[in-house]
Amino acid sequence: MFSFNKDGGRLSTAHSRYKIEENGTLVITNAQLGDSGHYRCSASNYLGRASSAARVKVNLNIPEAAPRITSFPRDASINEGLFVEFTCVASGHPYPDVSWWNNNRLVEFDGGRIQVSNGGQHLRIEDGKAYDSGLYTCRAQNRLGYIEASAKLEVKSSSTASVPLELITVPHDMVAPPGTTVQLPCRAEGFPRPEIQWLKDGHVMSSERRRFDIRPDGSLVVQNVTQEDEGMYECVADNGHERKSAQARFSVRSAREISNAFTYTSVDDADPGSTIGDQFVLVALEEALVDVDKALNSTLDHLFSASNRGGNATSSSRELLRIFRYPPENQRGVARAAEVFERTLDLVAEKVKSIDDHSSRSFSNFTYQDLVSPYNLELIGNLSGKRIS
Fold first, then answer.
1. Whose CA is closest to 275, among 379, 383, 384?
2. In the chain, N or C terminus with fewer CB closer than 10 Å?
3. DSSP string covering 84-96, please?
4. Phi and psi at residue 49, to the nearest 5°
């Protein structure tokens, strides 16, 4: 007669998975982890009793599997000083290791503000700081590979509360002669700090084009304007939360065409606030542009022509020094604008002096403010490319 004990207790064959054969063999069908243990077989007859023991270990045959994320981290937004938790639950065989990355850098867990638990599946950040903001990625990895899942964290700084986006300065319609430099103003404020982009006729403009420059304050500078620069210009301010824009039309006309748009009869008939030199402004500006550009081109030809690069060592070094001192292209635009501005005012003064015999006032006591009204002073500045504050 045969009987079995398991871990010191009698094993009942009444269980459908256990069967003792006639030869004393114990058969366990559909073995499970709970079947592991210490088994003792006892045999007895009328002559006596004998027993033998053995240990059984059941290993489940689980196929290997690459990591898989079953619970994903979610985007979060908190105020500075609060805490946030991310959860990333993964499965696989062998069981994957879970690590956390912030903006592609491994997160260091010092047991202080930043902590992990449950085998890396839970990430907790205490006392959130603005610099904790970024993209957090959990990576589950075993020998078969890895898988990642990411979530964004935004920590709002309490010291820099959000400020609504506002256009402080907007562009206005402008007319300028060819060859001049103009500046279309645009300035925006807000927090987060807005970025300014310019569009022409609906197409994005780039500062990579040499004649166009978007200044740090957001204004657009167009150098050496041509007829192709005419169009509708739009300043767009965007800080990721808000977007505002303003438009202005820019037209290119010769100084003579611009002058013809104004009607000047005599000083006595001029609008209140006008001065004796206003009627000569645009004509003088056109002449100044020609004079200054002629002088500028003459200087360039003299300094950089091949005929002036030869000669003895003394003359060559002298010419090199002149070239070195000559302003680069980006600075020449500013110098040209200043020259055009001053030359225009000088020409206005000359024209007023030529009719001084018909004026009851003494020209020798005039200042530029006496000769040209504030409006036309600003007009000269804008058309020459020199900003008047």
1. 379
2. C
3. EEEE-EEEEESPP
4. -140, 145
Cβ atoms of 275 and 371 closer than 8 Å:
yes
CA distances from 29 to 15, 16, 17, 19, 320 (A): 11, 9, 5, 9, 100
What tens digit of pLDDT does each residue of 271-306 get? 445 555 566 677 777 778 777 777 766 666 566 554
Chain position carrying tokens 């609504």: 164
373 touches 273 (CB < 8 A): yes
Please give the order of strands across the beta sheet that includes 212-214.
182-184, 220-222, 212-214
Highest CATH level, class, for 2-56? mainly beta
CA angle 211, 329, 345 (to 5 degrees): 90
CB atoms near residue 354 (< 10 Å):
11
Sequence ranges of the domains in the chain: 2-56, 65-156, 163-253, 256-384
Cα distance between residue 38 and residue 25, in whole Å: 15
Task: List beta partners, residue 233.
Answer: 200, 248
User: If you ran DSSP here, which 8-state letter would residue 269 be given?
Assistant: G
Q: What is the DSSP string of 127-139?
A: S--GGG-EEEEEE
Considering the segment(s) 65-156 as one domain, its CATH architecture is: Sandwich (2.60)
163-253 maps to CATH 2.60.40.10: yes
Amino acid, single-letter form, for residue 386: K
Amino acid residing at 82: L
pLDDT tens per residue, range 176-226: 888 888 888 898 888 777 889 999 999 888 766 678 888 878 888 888 889
For residue 325, the 8-state DSSP code is H
- Side chain identity at residue 212, one-letter code: F
